[in-house]
Amino acid sequence: MTDLISPDFTFSQSNLQTFDYCRRRFYLRYVKKLIWPAQLVSDQQYIQDREAGVRFHRLVHQHFLGFEASLLRKIADGDPDIRVATWFETFLASPMATLQGKLEPEALFTTKIAGHPLSAKVDLLQIDGENISIYDWKTSRHLPKLSTLQKQTQSKVYPLVISRALNLGQPGYETARLRMIYWEANFPGQTIEIPSYQNDWKKYQLEIAASIELILSLRREEFVATPDEKKCAWCEYRSYCQREKIAVDSKDIEMTDLLEGLTKIPAEAFDSWG
Ligand code: SF4
What we know:
This protein is of the alpha/beta class. The protein contains 11 helices and 6 strands.
């Protein structure tokens, strides 16, 4: 155990995924707390996608807070990116807009794993009788595969944190189930669902605790640079690592199998709404 990580450091799907991507990237961002020194991509497409995703996300949040649909439509229609209005209209026309039960949008939950806080801020938590679902809104350009999403840290951290917050691992809840539901605004008919049960949460807990304990055990020099230099092309810390000097173009991002390899990409870099 080193003292690089303070006892109150909160782990999340984002920083754990960053560690999986590259230990040095985790160190630079979360231990050294360095700001992004390099542009991620050489054109504005990535930034536009991210910002449009953020605004769509805000509209959906406001919808669940009870804002009038007509008012939100007006805001969406006035958005400089026409995709926002399309996504929002698609959302309103989908079953997602009329979910029943107790709905908690943008809810933050925290538990403790390996002596550290582990948090999950979910887009929407739905508790409808015995049906408990975690919804995640996406605006991806390509539909990720189920197998890709299953490997994502998010698909493990969120159910683990929620199951603990709701005491679903306790005796009497042996048959409890959580559904992680990814809804893509560009592919509204192709919702991806990942159910999980007590045995899964136990596995997630072991896996995530092992990751956290590994991070806590590393000395500064053990936060090594990824051996896969291809990853550096997408990383803002390139200049710190003497890796690739030229930012990739966002259209090259589309041409690669990045989405197939989402598990390799830190969420904060490629999640459509940041
Ligand atoms: S440039 Fe490469 S080695 Fe350096 S932090 Fe980023 S991914 Fe890791």
